[in-house]
Amino acid sequence: MRGDFMDVYKYIDEYGKYTFEEKKINEVDKVIFSFLSYANLEKVFEDDVVLTIYEAGKQYLQLHPGKDINIIAVKEGNKLLKYIHNVRRYKDCLLYNYEYVGNTKVQFGVVSIEYEPFKVFVSFEGTDSLFSGWKEDFILGYQFPTISHKMAIKYLNKHFSFSNKKLILGGHSKGGNLALVAGMYARPGIRRKITEIINADGPGLLDKEFKSLRYQSIKKKYKHIMPNYSLVGLFLNHSNDHVVSSTNKGILAHNIVYWEIEDNHFVKGKLSKFSKELDVAIKKWFAKYNLEDKKSFINNLDYVFREAGITSIMDIKTKKRNILNLIASSKDMSNSSKKLLTEFIMLIIKCFNEVKKDEVKDLLTNMFKITSKTFSNLNIAKKI
Question: Are 340 and 299 in contact (CB under 8 A)?
């Protein structure tokens, strides 16, 4: 981190000593809660129970003692849960109404976090490793509502129609989009209880929904937080953007751990030239292709992944050759479709490679810090 700026873990160390009654919830807490729904809580919530974050974290540690092999977002969600579960600020927060559905058609997760009496943060999960979730991310580009949209709206109507609790809705990536849509289309009584909607670097809306009265009615409550090297947050129509400074200049800027924090807020940033150009390119791409082109891309992608046995986004790297052979040998795809799919697959592989390089870089940096600290302590010891 530059200067005295913090990351989320240093923020937790700093603010973790205060309860929410002592220091009110702020935008950093809201983004942390938005990310918490990535945590793998299925076995923790096998029964319909209410747990404190401390109890959920303790059970998670007992159920998952080994190495975490999930994709970055889920791994970070799990790490956050473990990190905050015994921290004064978060440990007594209540978790309930947990739902997770993951199959070949849909990936949807959500949990309600009561951080103060009668004040609830509803956290919608972004895309995890399941291909169905990644497929739906693309479907957002031409279809509304999606299956997850309907599930998010149904969740709010089911659990909060007869509640007098104040609500903040939030999520990271696709979860932020779900929070926005759920807030727009929940029953009127629920919409009145919503005080804020947080979209942490998630996609926006299609033209019709973006121009709708529904969106205008909640716009004042809506906040779209995105890093200066945003990629996902530029997808579709977006407004109320609050750009924050990130220490990572690549796709990993999507991860909140790289967002810089000062005191109890994120450091303001400016959208990078790269992101601005990408924003223009995405809009041009959508203008260039019609609805049938977009549907064809998704259907072809779905076919290839099913034939290659891809169920998780992590399978793409290990089955790369099989996927590319399937695309090349297909008699039903046009040459342009083959080219588009091939470029997409290679882009994902490139992202995986960049992530690996970044992890190595972090490891070497930490080793250097530890070594420097060790020599520093030895020098102090010699002086003593």
Answer: no
Alpha-carbon span 24 to 119, nearest angstrom: 11
Closest to 234 in 3D by CA, of 280, 183, 191: 280
Domains of the chain, CATH where assigned = 8-284 (3.40.50), 289-384 (no CATH)
**Tens-digit pLDDT profile for residues 80-93:** 999 999 999 999 99
Q: DSSP states of 66-83 as a string?
A: S---S-HHHHHHHHHHHH
Q: Give the distance, in angstroms, between the CA of residue 333 and the centroid of all CA atoms in the same chain.
A: 33
Cross-sheet strand order for the sheet of 51-52? 51-52, 94-102, 107-116, 119-124, 166-172, 194-200, 222-227, 241-244
Task: Quick: pLDDT tens for 193-221.
Answer: 999 999 999 999 999 999 999 999 999 99
Neighbours of 281 (CB within 10 A): 11
Q: How far apart are CA 384 and CA 381, in angstroms?
A: 5
* Structure-token match 């793998």, residue found: 40
Cβ within 8 Å of residue 158, ≥6 positions away: none
Contact present, 155 and 182 (Cβ < 8 Å): yes
Amino acid (1-letter code) at residue 339: K
First to last CA, the chain: 31
